Amino acid sequence: MIPTDDATAVLVQEASAELQPAYQFPVLPMGLARRLCSKKELYFLCRDRGFPTPQTAFPQSRADLLQFLDKATFPVVLKGIDDRRLLGRTKVGMRIAHSAEELLKSYDEMEDPAQPNLMLQEYIPGNVDTVWMFNGYFNQKSECLLGLTGRKLRQRPAYTGMTSLGICLKNEIVDQSIRMLLGSLNYSGMVDIGCRYDKRDGQYKLLDVNPRVGCTFRLFLDRAGMDVVRACYLDLTGQPAEAQAAPEGRKWLVENQDLMVLPQYLRDGKLTVGEWLRSLRGVRETAWFNWLDLSPFWAVWVGYFGLFRRWLLKRQESRRTGAARPSPISDGSRFNPEELGESMKARAASQRTD
Length: 354
Hints:
single chain; 354 residues; alpha+beta; Dna Ligase, domain 1; seven-stranded mixed sheet; 13 helices; 38% helix; disordered C terminus
């Protein structure tokens, strides 16, 4: 059994006694999956273990926020402790506030006073080359059978979101420090971790831990083509999972997401068209397109065609009636690619491991 999102990862662990007679999966220490999925619990876990992580505050009210402002250093990152609950309620994953006024406005728009869910995180300066990932599989003895590192080259939303273009690169410090942390927690199973290099103190600071397969897992292949899903299968079925070194510089692309975020990188002067084209050199695999199975690729682009067609029909109707023109951004019936979710991406990509 392979969970593909945080909610099912927690559910599987908390119902492990009932599920184990019928399914095989690594079992974590009681409560660990829930702690890792909560950004608040993860922060205190890192503090207890002495592992670097950004300074964070957890206001329970607007009064707490006003008190925080007395000593605040901007920018400040505003996130959800439970990011899925925040995204479901506000359609916003995070915001970076550059002033007290901006922070107060974002807090008022995003927080649920009845169930506080926002955290205020220290902003770590730096470009995309500071954002690192670790993808690994740990057996029931907390031995890392496969552990690979890489960087996010582009993200959607820009600078703060999921990987749209990633590259596999060796980072010994990230690799060894995360192996030690997870080993100390008696962790087992697949894991997807994000961290950021802070040049101010020379530390790699942990941002999030996903105790499950991540949506970028197909970026991380060793030279024999093994990823964390295959390592998990081999281990659980009693077969040797012997990892090799990763091909340095291997790239993985999410075609639709990278195209959609490209205009913002161009507007911000972070990229030119020529640089974007050159950045695609070295792409060895894409999230949707594969000659062996074209159905995921067509499903995505047919969806986009449907979005454009509905928008065009509404626009023509508004011209006839004199109503305000709809736009693909404001149209509530629009096809939203982000609603495909990590689960669909993981399922589509996992078909290529066979």
